[in-house]
Amino acid sequence: MALLDRAALLAEYTDVDFGDARLDGRLRRILPLLASNPGQSFPEQMDSEADQEALYRFLKNPKVTVDALLEGHRSQTLERMSGRAVVRIVHDTSEFVFKGERDGLMPPVQKEAKGFSGHFALAVAGDESREPLGVLGLFPFFQKQELKGLTEREKAKKHRDTPRA
Question: In which domain, by residue range, is 42 found?
């Protein structure tokens, strides 16, 4: 999916309802800011310190979950999937790595950097266009502190022996 204009971006999230008008409004304010420079850090994406504070408060709110944020986009993705003869759901696990201090992230994902992994389910047109249709699911997971200090072999054994959620 190409970069969306503001109206198209907001349309992706029309079905998101946190049950709180302030949160819903805050989402519609910060989405275009986040999309305008997706490669930048949150402070660089926001227009002001007030926007930055609003973003952090938004993300810390317990009503704001991955599933709640994805709901609108998921609905739009299902619409784009309808009527297609073949749609493939491809899966990928990617690491998100951050340098510097980050609350709630377990070190190290890579050397001294902190981060987490995310497993994505992406709908893709099954024809020769291979057009990405949208994300249907995202499962973020964090390296547990209990793995810290283990050798790679010990970590691999622990992963093999640990049942999946």
Answer: 1-64
